[in-house]
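Query form — protein MAGE-domain-containing protein

QUESTION: What is the three-dimensional structure of this chain?
INPUT:
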Amino acid sequence: MTDDDSESISIQSNFKLPENITQEDIEKKAIDLVRLAISNNVSDVPLKREEIRKKVIKDNMRIFPVVFEEAQKILRNDYCMELVEYPTRGTKIHSLNKETQRDTQVSQASTSTQTQNQIKRSKKYTTKSYILRSLIPGNFRKGFIFEKEDYQLHGLLIIILCLIYVNGNHLKEDALYKYLEKFGISKNKSHKVFGDVEKNISQFTQKGYLEKEKSVVPNEEIFYNYKWGPRALVEFPENNLLKFVKGFYNENEHEQIVRELIRSRGIN
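ANSWER: The structure tokens for MAGE-domain-containing protein are given below.
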């Protein structure tokens, strides 16, 4: 039995269903929520709690926690996915510390559960909307992405997120494109794999993977900075990005790389 199953049982055992609601009703609503979450995921738009109320719960929001946990069990067991609350804009990447480094040995599913619990406990994450996150380990995901173009753009996104990450989650727009040029990716020239890179970055921003902030310095030109967006915080655990960056270096350099990342991000 997983920790999530125990939590679900605890919630249900301490909750008395209204007289007009049966366990069969809860299970049916849970299935309806799973269908709604999966169909909503296609549009890349967060699923609002209010939409769940109107289309699934309808008349009694007291049963929401029980329905939600039942739906989570179905999503995790049958689809290897889970619903997580959508972070607010401006939420920071979790700091690298000893606990984070130790957690790199934990499986993605376990890390996912820990991250979700942290989100639940943090008021700044209260957006009353949710998105689906895959629990499939990264090395198995390629076979589940049917469109070659989607997989290629996923690679571009990871490169950009890593560049922002190693620069303290705060990278000027012109600096981002200078970094990309070192990968043979030009802002003003269509790439043979990624196509119009500027357009793709704009789409990443619209979908919530990136945040683009306008900065104005007195007596200087206006410039823009890129940061991780809310969706990136949910779908790309910091531990996974750290592993990805370390993969470019020899194993005997990993410890030094972690120290450099901590130093570059201003973390003691």
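ADDITIONAL NOTE: Residues 3-140 form a domain with the Arc Repressor Mutant, subunit A fold (CATH 1.10.10.1200).
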